[in-house]
Amino acid sequence: MSSPFLRAAVTPSRGIMRAGAKKGSSTSLNGDARNDLIKRVLFDAPPRPPVRLSPEDQARHETIERAWNLVRRLRREENEKSLAKKFEMMRKANAELEATSPMLFKHSQTKERNAVFPRQLRTLTDTPPKQIWNYRLAASAPTKA
C-alpha cells in the first residue's frame, strides 16, 4: 500500500496518515477532514464473517462448482484440440513448402530484422479500418483485351 510518491503509512486505529503528520492532527493528505472519514470507511472496515451455508445450500453450491469446472475443462480441451489441429496443418503446410521450394521455405522461416510494426507486422483484428469506404474512388475505364 506504500507509494514512493505519497509516503503514507497505514495504521490500524487511525487509518492512513501522512508520514511525519502529528498524532492529534485531524487532517491528512490534502488538509480536508472528509478525506480522513472516507479513508476510515474504506480501509478500517471490520472483516466480514465467513458465509455459513446450510448443508442443502452447501450441496447445491458444490454441485454448481463441479458443473462449472466441468464446463471450463471441456472448453479448455476443445480449445487445445483446435490448436493442435491448427499446428498440425501448419506443420504439414511447412513440409509441403519445403518439398516444393526449399528457397521459399527458408525465406518463410527467417524473421525479418528490419520489419516495422505498423506496416509490415500488422496484426489481424476484428475492428474496422480507419477509412471505411473511399467515396472519391472513380470507376476505372474497362480495358480492351
Describe it for me?
- The protein is mainly α and 145 residues long.
- It contains four helices and two strands.
- The radius of gyration is 32 Å and the shape is extended.
- Residues 1-15 have low confidence and may be disordered.
Write the layout of secondary structure elements.
Layout: E1 8-11, E2 15-18, H1 33-43, H2 55-100, H3 102-109, H4 117-120
Antiparallel strand pairs: 1-2
Strand fraction: 5-15%
The total strand number stands at: 2
Count of separate DSSP helical elements: 4
Order of helices and strands: EEHHHH
The general outline is extended
Give a summary of the structure in a few sentences.
The protein has 145 residues and is mainly α. Helix content is 48%, strand content 6%. The protein is extended and about 80 Å long.
Descriptive labels:
4 helices, extended, about 140 residues, mainly alpha, disordered N terminus, two-stranded antiparallel sheet, single chain
